[in-house]
Amino acid sequence: MGKWNYRSVNPYIWLISGIMLLSGLFFIIYTTVLPTSQRPPRQVDAANAVEVSAKVLHAAESYRVLEQFQARNPMLPQHSFGALQLARSKAAKGIQALVKKAHILDTYVTPDGAQAVYFVQRNEMQSPHAWTQIDVLTMAPETQQIDQEPIGYIYGEDTEAVAQSTLLCGFISKDEFLYTTVANADQEWVYVVNKFNMTQKTVTPVLELFRYEPLTAVTGGSQPKAPVLYKAVLTPDKKHLLIRDSMNGITSYTLETGTKKGIIPGSNERRSGEQFEVVGESGIALYNANRFQSDIWWIDTQTGSAKQPFSSEQGLIEVGMDANGKVMYYNFTYDRNPANLLIGPDQSLLLSYGVQVLDTGGHPLKRFSLPKDSKERLEFGGYSETKKAVLLHKYTLATNKEGRTYKKTSGWLFGDMNTGAMTALNRLDVPDSWDKSDVVVGKATLEPYSQAAEEQVFANYLDNSYYMCRWKTKQMIQRQDEDVIIYADEPSKRVFVSSFTRPDLVVAAFNYKKYNWDNKAFSWLNGHWMSRHQIQPEGDKVYLFQIN
């Protein structure tokens, strides 16, 4: 073998070797020497965010939000919002306050019903800088006590993503709740679950869900929107979280271990016409990319399992739960003809022929239906656990003076959960000598053109009679042990208090039309207190009033 001569090596090979050597040296310098703050930012992609668990923050210490931000982010620009400015004004039978230069994201009520809890957002824009602060504002109407404390603070331009992602997951005691929010960590945004103690006014980290590093001007082009948390719910066992976000979709988290389980593939993007709801306190969530289709996902939020138990149904279905959370149900049709839908500008109604009652595990209990060729239709109206009876709404289709189709009530029936028999009820004009324990309350939405097009029925199981409520309402509180019904009549902007035993009589009424509310959201507290808020450009207005 001849002696090797480096001069005989092709010069192109030398050139390629040199380029590779320089590239390797540059990579080492870039990753070990160049400070983090000088690197071009990156965007965490959902496809690259494959994790088996979230980061559990067991040993994390409690802190105050503003102090924590200043201590951990000394290089980021700072801005002081100061305390929330509340301008209280006189209000009959209640509390009224203007939250200056701030907007209410949502309203909650403590488990003991004593306090209203508001998440309040403030933004400050000083181009090219932007800051967002989220405060918790609590009001106890009985004691007139008002408290506030920051629970979120972040530097970054996408203020809307921060506001949408700050959500109350649920209470773990009467004065502690879990919530999600976004925090700074150098250039990254950290999406976290925290615990807030309302007594000590401190925050304790619980879980780190994921991180995101926003793209900035150095990369050129427009900056993409930051990830958003759409929904975050603490399960009834208080051991898991069900979260839906724009990166991971619908995901289950175990609080103790951080175990993360993706449930519905492709659910990270919200679509027009989809259905996603967590059903009351049942621990059940429902998801369907196309509403009224039988391939709806039934999600057990405590185990993170999902199934499609109704896929064998040949028609359209509409799944729901009774007002007291005792049973699930779905209204159904025999085929998927579009004529089985009554479509309005903001909602659609299913024109069903029958009702399938289920337990909270999705297993069928009893089925009630009309023949396929029937001119009448049948839907779920209400349920009594003590009577083991389903209240069924029977109706035909009619046309009003404006030429719009609506449901015309032809009767109400009781469906017996033991025998499957259906009993027609007799209508009364004046209910009298009723016992509250015999009364079952139901409701039906009559047309899709108005959010308040509902009617209520009070049915007496003992004598198979019913009374139709004369006021249209969208939201109602039932307190059967107190013999009290509280409901809002949207068309006339009134709140009424009536009873199970004499639903034809109004015990008390309060007119709130003069406050010009632009939203229908309200919360109920102990002592018949109502909490509402009004959105205004200069700052939202909070109002708590008592209905005697």
What are the salient characteristics of this protein?
single chain, 548 residues, mainly beta, five-stranded antiparallel β-sheet, 3 helices, transmembrane helix, transmembrane, membrane
Summary, kept brief:
The chain has 548 residues and is mostly beta strands. The chain has a domain at 51-75 and 83-234.
Note the topology.
Elements: H1 11-32, E1 55-56, H2 65-72, E2 86-89, E3 94-99, E4 103-109, E5 116-126, E6 129-140, E7 145-155, H3 159-165, E8 167-173, E9 176-185, E10 188-197, E11 202-212, E12 229-234, E13 240-245, E14 249-254, E15 260-264, E16 275-279, E17 284-288, E18 297-300, E19 305-307, E20 317-321, E21 328-332, E22 341-343, E23 348-350, E24 354-358, E25 364-369, E26 377-384, E27 389-399, E28 405-416, E29 422-424, E30 426-427, E31 439-445, E32 454-460, E33 465-468, E34 476-479, E35 484-489, E36 494-498, E37 508-511, E38 522-525, E39 529-534, E40 541-546
Parallel strand pairs: 30-33
Antiparallel strand pairs: 1-11, 2-3, 3-40, 4-5, 5-6, 6-7, 8-9, 9-10, 10-11, 12-13, 13-14, 14-15, 16-17, 17-18, 18-19, 20-21, 21-24, 22-23, 24-25, 26-27, 27-28, 28-29, 31-32, 32-33, 34-35, 35-36, 36-37, 38-39, 39-40
| Rounded mean pLDDT score | 86
Shape: globular
**How large, in whole angstroms, is the Cα Rg?**
29 Å
Fraction in beta strands: over 45%
Low-pLDDT stretches are 1-7, 26-51
| Record field, number of beta strands | 40
